[in-house]
Amino acid sequence: MARVYANVNGELGPGWYDYERLKIEWNVPDRYEIVRRIGGGRYSDVFEGVDTSNEDACVIKVLKPIARKKIKREVKILRNLSGGPNVIGLLDVVHDPISRSNSLIMEFVQNVDWKEFHLSCSELEIKHYLFQLLTALDFVHSRGIMHRDVKPANVMYDRERRKLRLIDWGLAEFYHPSTEYHIRVGSRYYKGPELLVGFHLYDYSLDIWSVGCILASMIFRREHFFRGKDNEDQLLKIMKILGTDGFERYLYRYGLFLQTSNKDLLCNHPRQPWPRFVTAETAPTATHESLDLLDRLLRYDHAERLTAAEAQAHSYFNAVRLQTPSAPAECVSDSGFYST
């Protein structure tokens, strides 16, 4: 069971979480024009567009043929989260009778390229970016929802305006205690260990692992900190840094078994201290406080990871919190890198 917000959906009731009952009233797409393609993936193509009724920029997410249930889930979640801090806004839903395609019209954010940003961001920018992301996630989790695909490509950040939006809710899901969820979610470089070992009873802390991966990328100036060729290699990359001993304790605690023919996954790997990854170039961003926070996010055991609110309360964010009156007031202890 999740340490926080475990019973939110039970308290709010089926009207909040039962997306299969949702009836979507689709509007016509006539007022929206496509300007250029800006992305896409397995489930959608994404375009920059314009709302001709007011000339405002927007994002047009054209959904590929997918299960109606998934479309309902995404729309329900976006509507439930409407107006939440740093969550992308859903402006409209449209159906084109000619192409028979459905599209979601979203808020537009002038996004900075991650490949540029992670190499050039200052320590204060990292703190501001991460704090805003955690603000979004604490709100989302408090509404009983797991994002399940947190990664830089799903975080739009307007560097000039310091405006962040968490996007792409196609894999998001409502959390219910003791419920088994699909493990084929997330993107490989940001998948939590629970997904890589087939643990289906995960919770909001899955998103926190992904935040830890993003923090590691930013402070160590690596585009992807754990970069495996496939899921087994991804797990191996994690084990070579967090060590075998902690991994075996994690498996034992939850009654998990690793089935693999990869001999490297069966070898002993000592834990690597975080300061080992600090260079003269990254020393200004890979500080004692940032490494301590990182250590508390990247834990095998999801129950040992900080929650989004606890992470915000870490002393790493003291300077940012002074500018954010609604931030948590308590601070996490700043003792050692490797306390458990």
From TrEMBL:
SMART domains for the chain: S_TKc
Q: Which UniProt keywords apply?
A: ATP-binding, Kinase, Nucleotide-binding, Nucleus, Serine/threonine-protein kinase, Transferase
**Where does the source fall among the domains of life?**
Eukaryota
Alphabetical GO CC annotations of the entry are:
cytosol; nucleolus; protein kinase CK2 complex
Alphabetized CDD domains for the sequence: STKc_CK2_alpha
Subcellular location, in the record's words?
Nucleus
Its protein name is Casein kinase II subunit alpha
Q: Its catalytic activity?
A: L-seryl-[protein] + ATP = O-phospho-L-seryl-[protein] + ADP + H(+); L-threonyl-[protein] + ATP = O-phospho-L-threonyl-[protein] + ADP + H(+)
The protein's Enzyme Commission number = 2.7.11.1
Where ATP binds, per the record, is at: K69
Question: Which family, according to the similarity comment?
Answer: Belongs to the protein kinase superfamily. Ser/Thr protein kinase family. CK2 subfamily.
